[in-house]
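Pipeline run #58 for the internal structure catalog. This entry was flagged by the ingest filter as a single-chain record with no existing model, so it goes straight to prediction. Upstream metadata was stripped on purpose; only the residue string is passed forward. Reviewer on rotation: M.T. Logging verbosity set to normal.
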Amino acid sequence: MTPTQARLRTPRAAAIAGIAFSVLMIVSLTLIRMAVPADPQDTGEWMTSSDRAIGLALNLVPFAGIAFLWFIGVIRDRLGLQEDRFFSTVFLGSGLLFLAMLFASAAMTGGMLIAYGEQPDNLIGADTYAFGRAVTYLILNINAMRMAGVFMISACTLLLRTGLAPRWLVLLGYALALILLVSITRAAWVALLFPLWVLLISIHILIENYRDKPAIPAASPMEKT
């Protein structure tokens, strides 16, 4: 593969990875938001009827994380020599912290489901559940979403400086990132803003990739013989 071909295929890889992350993350968060109460002080009654939905959501999280890592890698590769060291460090660091917190909250929730399966009568309303529920809530809804906002700000700055995204999409990213940074923690559906923004960026990259795809010249009569 020539360097030109590699440069042409990288944006498409970023778009596919971003779309995969967005779809998986939206499905996972939607299942969780529909099954788990927004109030972190609930007694755990949702585990009696929503364990299958939560289990499916948790099984999607690792695949969403893999796609997000791929998205980060190919975006940095696309930036190449235009990459700003400061914003790239914030971009990479906030993305990795977001993934770590996402995995941690999923592990905590999965642990509570396993504990409920072993001792259903002892977990609901117990201090152990209250602690695990509070920690999971704080990690996902506060810390992870704040890191997602920082990731969006750094990504928008890089995209704006390099011209890889239109200004309206960058400004929209700044606005959504601000909402994630200052939003009320119990506004549960606000978390969907992050995967939706990644979806918009990925669709734009995919469209631009097909627009810039060079046409294959037709073979001359001499070449056909």
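catalog note: Helices lie at 3-35, 51-79, 85-118, 120-123, 127-162, 167-182, 193-211, 221-224.
catalog note: Residues 1-8, 215-225 have pLDDT under 50 and may be disordered.
status: ready for reviewer M.T.
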